[in-house]
Automatic annotation (TrEMBL):
SUPFAM superfamilies: Prokaryotic type KH domain (KH-domain type II) (SSF54814). One of its GO terms (molecular function) is RNA binding. The keyword tRNA processing does not apply. This is RNA-binding protein KhpA. A probable RNA-binding protein. Gene3D superfamilies: 3.30.300.20. It is found in: Cytoplasm. The keyword Glycosyltransferase does not apply. Belongs to the KhpA RNA-binding protein family. PROSITE patterns: KH_TYPE_1. Pfam families: KH_KhpA-B.
C-alpha cells in the first residue's frame, strides 16, 4: 500500500469543523419535529467558536427545547462534545 496525499472519498477539504456539528444538530432536530421543512440552521463562525441558531415552527420549538430544557441541554452536550473532537467551541440556541 502506498501513502497518498489525497482526501478520502466523500471528504470535502473546504468543510469547516462547525459543518460537522451543524449536520449533527440538524439530524437530531429533524428527528424531533413534525415539520422538517421549517427547520433552518444559521451558523456563525468566529475565533471564539461557532454559534448554531436553530429556527423552527413555534409548535415544534417546544419539542426541541423539551421539558425544563432537558432536550436542548442534551443537544448542546452532544454538539459541544463533537465540537471538542473537531477543534471548535460550539453554542446552540433555539430561535422560535
Amino acid at each position: 500500500m502506498e501513502a497518498t496525499d489525497e482526501a478520502p472519498t466523500g471528504v470535502n477539504e473546504s468543510e469547516l469543523p462547525s459543518d460537522k456539528v451543524c449536520d449533527l444538530v440538524e439530524f437530531i432536530v429533524c428527528g424531533l419535529v413534525d415539520d422538517e421543512d421549517s427547520v433552518t440552521l444559521d451558523v456563525t463562525d468566529s475565533e471564539a467558536g461557532s454559534l448554531i441558531e436553530v429556527t423552527c415552527s413555534e409548535q415544534d420549538a417546544g419539542r426541541v427545547i423539551g421539558r425544563k430544557g432537558r432536550t436542548i441541554k442534551a443537544i448542546r452536550t452532544l454538539a459541544r462534545a463533537l465540537g471538542q473532537r473537531v477543534g471548535t467551541a460550539v453554542e446552540v440556541e433555539v430561535v422560535g
